Structure formats: structure tokens, C-alpha cells
Amino acid sequence: MTSRVTGAYFADGTRHLDYDTFQGHIAPDCESDFAFKGALRDEATAVWRGMIRVEKDAQKTNAYQECRNLMLSPTTHAVPIPGLEILANDVRYTHAATVGSASKPQSSKTRRHHRWKWNQVISLLQPKREAKRSAG
């Protein structure tokens, strides 16, 4: 059995977002793939806590989680917290979390600058065509 979940967010102003996700594996030979991406502007903040739990009988599990955050203003703040709780001994799991800022182009706040930032957000949120993450 395979589970794929993709989430996206955008916050601006003084909004605060707080997300908790859970990937639970209780049966053998299962796969989960979780991708969460977002962008923050102004003074917005976001916290993500993601947990992968693999029970003792869930051998041959393949689990992946990622959280990507794009800071569009220097006053934003994001805290990604990936977590693993593995009780089985024959599993494959990976996790990734990033927080990056959009580098300012040479021009100041012009229409071109705003379009450039918007393109950064679109690029972050579009699904990537990449090789399947599972082994084999």
C-alpha cells in the first residue's frame, strides 16, 4: 500500500501557521511520501512538526517526508521539525527540511521584482519530476 500527501501554504501579514502531521505505519511492505511546501511574507511565521512512526511489525516500510520553506521577507520565520520513531529493524526512511530566503535581485521594488518573487513561489510549489524515492 502507498500513501502520497502533498500540502502547500502561503502566509503574510502577522499570520502564524502551526501544522502537525503524522505518518503511521502498522503493516509490512507499505510506503508513505509526504511533501509540505510554503512561502512566508511580511512578519508571518510557520511551525511544522512532522512525525513518522513505524511499528514493530511494519517491516520493509519505506517512508519519506520533506518540508520546504521560502522566506520572501527578512522578517519572516519558519521552524520545520521532522521526527522519526522507528520500532522495526528492516525499514527505509528519509526526511528533509529547509528554510531559505529569496535572494533579492539587483533592482529594487519594481513590478519586475514582484514578478520575480512570485515566480520563486510558483517554482517552489510546483511538483518536481524526479526519480521515485523508493528503493529498488
> How many domains comprise the coordinates?
1
The number of E-state strands comes to 7
Percent strand: over 45%
Radius of gyration of CA atoms, rounded to a whole number? 17 Å
Distance between the termini: 16 Å
What percent of residues adopt helix (DSSP H or I)? Answer: 10-25%
Order of helices and strands: EEEEEEEH
Number of helices: 1
Low-confidence blocks of residues: 131-136
Task: Briefly note the structural class of the backbone.
Answer: mainly beta
Main β-sheet, spatial strand arrangement: 1-3-5-7
Largest sheet: 4 strands, parallel
Shape: elongated
What value does the average pLDDT take?
Answer: 84
In short:
The chain is mainly β and 136 residues long.
How is this structure best described in words?
With 136 residues, this protein is mainly beta. The protein has one domain (2-125). It is 11% helix and 53% strand. The chain has one helix at residues 111-125; strands spanning 2-11, 16-25, 31-40, 45-54, 61-71, 77-86, 91-101. The strands form 2 sheets. Strands 1-3-5-7 form a 4-stranded parallel sheet, covered by helices on one side. It has a 3-stranded parallel sheet with strand order 2-4-6, with no helix packed on it. The relative contact order is 0.21.
